[in-house]
Amino acid sequence: MALFLLVLGVLIxxxxxxxxxxxxWFGVRVSNFAVGFGPTIAKWTRGETTYRLNLLPLGGYCxxxxxxxxxxxxxxxxxxxxxxxxxxFIIIVAxxxxxxxxxxxxxxxxxxxxxxxxAQTNIVESVAPDSPAARAGLQPGDQIxxxxxxxxxxxxxxxxxxHARPDQTLVVGIKRGDQVITQSxxxxxxxxxxxxxxxxxxxxxxxxxxxESLLGAIGYxxxxxxxxxxxxxxxxxxVVAQHDISVLSGPVGIYRVFTQQSQFGFVAGIQFVGEIxxxxxxxxxxxxxxxxxxxxxxxxxxxxxxxxxxxEKEGLVHLTGFALLMVLVLFVTYxxxxxxxxxxx
Length: 345
What we know:
This protein is α+β, with helices and mostly antiparallel strands. It contains nine helices and ten strands. The protein is elongated.
């Protein structure tokens, strides 16, 4: 849990630093820079900015002078409202962009230093502790030749077969050196959402890797991140169309996936960190009040009508949006915990 909170805190700081650095660049005064919401655990002041560490690590904020206040008519160059629309746009969009660029950087770094998977084999790369595979004695280097009498040479076919059989006992033929071992292993039932599940044994197949050139790795980073965001956008549209928010995961669900991925080694863990960063960037660009995307909507309205919306009225809209988001977070957190207790996560 401590590692997850540290990772989440770093990603939030990175996001808010995007707002912060461009606010400073354009001469906007930042009164508060906070990680988390709720009661303040620690704070310190440096220059004109108070830095805060708050209790609930569910986000953060970079509070700029005049951001949610009506123009007082002063000539204060540090007031957010006194800056051109294009500068305010860059300041607001910088936070999500920083998260997206971090996701691209992580994917590109892995592709350049380690490589990208081109195929899965039927050889075991790693085994998650306290998983069905671990309890059955499966070891890295083992070759899974058959399941239920069916032969496999492709790791992807192997994984698909296991995923299609949640909460079932599989007869697994394992080649270890010159020995062939047969084990009966019962799959775990992992929740996909919407009452659907997949089977898992808790091992990762070895990947055939291909290292990319620097330019190729950068291209791969953009492609992987873009594909990930597109899949999440499609998923979000499906949730809205079907009116089923039970498939959403909150902090608890993300923590569970983080711990599962981390069990498969550093690379799997750091890849998931990149995906969390991409999610933070994507989520914050949604046109929802209280999010950066909601603030961009108000800038668009200002561009169209030629004058800004009253900042106090805009602030009230964002406050209402924040309250509704917290209700949603509480709901998905309750659902995640309920699924965890039932053993579905």
